[in-house]
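Subgroup meeting minutes
Present: P.N., E.W., G.H.
Scribe: E.W.

1. P.N. recapped why we're keeping a running log of single-chain structure predictions: easier to compare across weeks, and new members can see raw inputs and outputs side by side.
2. G.H. added today's entry (253 aa).
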Amino acid sequence: MNAFFIGLQFLTRIKLRQQSEWSAEYFGKSVKFFPLIGAVLGLILAAAAYVFLVLLPVFNIYLPAHLTASLLLILSVILTGGLHCDGFMDTMDGIFSGRERERMLEIMKDSCVGSNAVMAFVLFMLTKWSLLLDMSGGQLIVALFVMPIIARMAMVIGITLFPYARPEGMGKAFAVYANKKSLFYAAIFTFVFILPCGFSAIISMVGVFIFALLFGRYCTKILGGLTGDVYGALTELSELLVLCIFVLVVQIL
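Output recorded in log:
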């Protein structure tokens, strides 16, 4: 289980057990557990939503909807330490720069944040916050549970089905040591968690899988592959897509 705890400690700020043995091989082996790590995050987010929307009202404590959505959004960032948000911003800076491949990769590696990243992140967070507001209590709890699971599965798709764009980098170990077997196990874990969660969850899973393939193909075309930053961007955009599908399914049906 070292691989699972390494993945958990790397992708989140949750430390169930302190890992002292870190190796590229263990990083790669942890990929198949990404949906399980998503399930841990989902349980925490769903539990927080349950407390805000169900438990506190029992004691006549009613939080404003806007505050509840803000707290849940902040919690989701805190749990990951903003890791994927950072990747999202770097990716937006790179792919929207309109430069050549090598220059895009340089921009993404630069620690400075550009205007493309700031504008994209502000719009992203506003949209995510708005979608949280648009859901009813029960729907929100389910969406918050499945959202991290499906999004981490999208990251597995990016890691295992597309090449790595750099000769080296933080995400290189994932790309080198993860394989189709990792994808298979991750898919099984995802199906086990998602299928019992209803129609909206299943549609979200299918939609995100399609999006992950299209986004991975697009980034491979312009960058020559994916990077650790792109993995983060794929995760964040997949979470947004899950929330969007949950809202739309209710409106359509």
